[in-house]
Amino acid sequence: MTTPYQLYYWDGLQGRGEFVRLALEEAALPYDDVARRKKGMPALMASLDGDKVDHPSFAPPVLRAGELLIGQTANILLFLGARHGLAPRAEAGRLWANQLQLTICDIVAEAHDTHHPISTNKYYEDQKKEAKARAQDFRDTRIPKFLDYFEGVVRRNPGRGGWAIGSRRSYVDLSLFQLIEGLRYAFPKTMAKLEPSYPGLVALRDKVAARPNIAAYVGSKRRIPFNEDGIFRHYPELE
Q1: Any residues with CB less than 8 A from the CB of 212 and at least 6 apart, and which?
Q2: Are the CB atoms for 8 and 73 separated by under 8 Å?
Q3: What is the separation of C-alpha 183 from the centre of its chain, rounded to a whole number of angstroms?
Q4: Beta carbons of 153 and 164 less than 8 angstroms apart
Q5: Residues 102-135, buried b or exposed e (16+ Cβ, 10 A)?
Q6: Domain tally for the chain?
Q7: Among 92, 114, 140, 200, which is most buried by a count of CB atoms within 10 Å?
Q8: What is the DSSP code (8-state) at residue 224?
Q9: Beta strand spans in the chain (E)
Q10: What is the three-class DSSP state of 230?
Q11: What is the pTM of this model?
Q12: Residue 162 structural domain
């Protein structure tokens, strides 16, 4: 591309936009993180406005690629994966990657609901009792259930190299890296106990972290730190 992609996501948050950022960074693709620039928020809101765009998204992230305006994390990654070598070439492989990404989206949504189990329109402080119960179930049953599944995916992969799909890295690996990082931030005690049971996932996380472009990005100011305004939040009382 001769012009950079434009990524629309909330300023100051990793959130769901971070899964897209990791793909863009790994592929060394130029992009404009629109909301982080001056007067970027009006442009972000315009991407959601059905009176201004033909295919408005319900919420960020949104990616502009030329005339295309693409919403939903998994949908954006499906597009980038096929275009930039971050997904298998065969249709079956691309569909498998999308299926795994959608499953990652499921656990990300559940992680969010540990601190907002009643309503996203209420502050965490207004639902702390319910959040404590939701977080316990997430820690005790849901995290292990999802990690069991993804560990099995890595172990059963017929390709070589310890990746989730085939013999080379894909956007799914980048997203699993982000998932592990987010869970470590939000539930450090839980993850410290669980991780020895998931050597394949931990090794995959480490392989992604060692990728030159990812390492450079994670160590740069472009990488927004985890914080208590994002999806993955660390509240000690929820552990």
Answers
A1: none
A2: no
A3: 11
A4: yes
A5: ebbbebbebbbbbbbbeeeeeeeeebeebbbebb
A6: 1
A7: 114
A8: P
A9: 5-8, 31-33, 62-65, 68-71
A10: coil
A11: 0.96
A12: 91-211
Q: CA-CA distance, 6 to 52, in Å (whole number)?
A: 17
Identify the helix (H) or strand (E) that includes residue 44. Answer: helix 40-46
28-33 contacts at long range (C-beta below 8 A, 24 or more positions apart): 28/213, 29/1, 29/4, 29/5, 29/80, 29/84, 30/1, 30/3, 30/4, 30/5, 31/4, 31/5, 31/6, 31/7, 32/4, 32/5, 32/6, 32/7, 33/7, 33/9, 33/222
The pair of three-digit structure tokens given for residue 109, joined into one six-digit string: 């949504």
User: What is the pLDDT, as a whole number, of residue 2?
Assistant: 52
Tokens of 30: 């130029």
Query: pLDDT tens digit string along 21-35?
Result: 999 999 999 999 999
User: What per-residue confidence (pLDDT) applies to 157?
Assistant: 93
In a domain, 200, yes or no: yes
Q: CA-based angle 60:64:68, to the nearest 5?
A: 115
Does any domain span residue 12?
Answer: no
Contact 100, 166 (CB under 8 A): no
The CATH number of the domain holding residue 192 is 1.20.1050.10
For the CA atoms of 153, 18, 1, 68, the dihedral, rounded to the nearest 10 degrees, stands at 90
Confirm whether 186 is domain-assigned: yes
> Are 205 and 176 within 8 A, CB to CB?
yes
**Residue ranges with strand state E in 67-212:** 68-71
pLDDT digits (tens, 9 = 90+) for 32-78: 999 998 889 999 999 999 888 889 999 999 999 999 999 999 999 99
